[in-house]
């Protein structure tokens, strides 16, 4: 409880700050320290082709995957680890959470219909 009362002013303050949590997440998603998530994961996290190239196997593509249904834990882990394509980010928990919430809000309808699809899914 004591911890909560210490935290409360901060929560109240951020609630009243001039940009909303959604706008904050949007800003972070589009410009996190230089390399924007949107550049690889698309405008709303739906994923996109980053680059295509030709090699001995023919036409290949590097894709930023669809991250709309990723969990917060997956997102936190992903931004903090090294990958072949995706850069490592130094974002705080709050910043990642804001990005996560932004994508969840923006893709609310997609996520809901996706959940429906899962429950109605017929196993093949
Ligand atoms: C240069 C391109 C690029 C950028 C920029 C980028 N990503 Fe990614 N991301 C990828 C690729 C490619 C993958 C899939 C393969 C991998 O893990 O490297 C991925 C995977 C992910 C995953 C899934 C991890 C899992 O466990 O399945 C999440 C979540 C994610 N990215 C979030 C983000 C967020 C949030 C940002 C911005 C802070 C971001 N990415 C920026 C390319 C990128």
What can you see in these coordinates?
- There is one protein chain.
- This protein is of the alpha+beta class and 124 residues long.
- It is built from six helices and two strands.
- Strand 1 (48-55) and strand 2 form a beta hairpin.
- Helix 2 (21-30) crosses helix 5 and helix 4 (72-80) crosses helix 5 (93-106).
- Bound molecules: heme C (HEC).
Please render the helix and strand layout as text.
Layout: H1 2-16, H2 21-30, H3 38-41, E1 48-55, E2 58-64, H4 72-80, H5 93-106, H6 108-120
Antiparallel strand pairs: 1-2
Helix pairs in contact: 2-5, 4-5
The chain binds heme C.
Oligomeric form: single chain
The percent range for helix content is: 40-55%
Reading the helices and strands in chain order gives HHHEEHHH
Q: List low-confidence stretches.
A: none
Quote the average pLDDT. Answer: 86
Bound molecules: heme C
Strand line-up across the major sheet: 1-2
Radius of gyration: 18 Å
Computed structural class: alpha+beta
Rough shape? globular
Compute the number of helices. 6
Number of strands: 2
């Amino acid at each position: 409880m004591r911890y909560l009362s210490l935290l409360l002013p901060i929560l109240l303050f951020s609630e009243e700050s001039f940009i909303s949590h959604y706008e904050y997440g949007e800003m972070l998603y589009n410009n996190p320290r230089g390399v924007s998530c949107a550049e690889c994961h698309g405008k709303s996290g739906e994923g996109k082709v980053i680059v295509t190239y030709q090699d001995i196997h023919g036409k290949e593509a590097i894709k930023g995957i669809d991250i709309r249904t990723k969990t917060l834990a997956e997102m936190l882990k992903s931004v903090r680890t090294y990958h072949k394509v995706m850069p490592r980010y130094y974002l705080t928990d709050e910043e990642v959470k804001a990005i996560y919430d932004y994508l969840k809000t923006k893709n609310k309808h997609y996520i809901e219909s996706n959940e429906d699809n899962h429950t109605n899914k017929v196993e093949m």
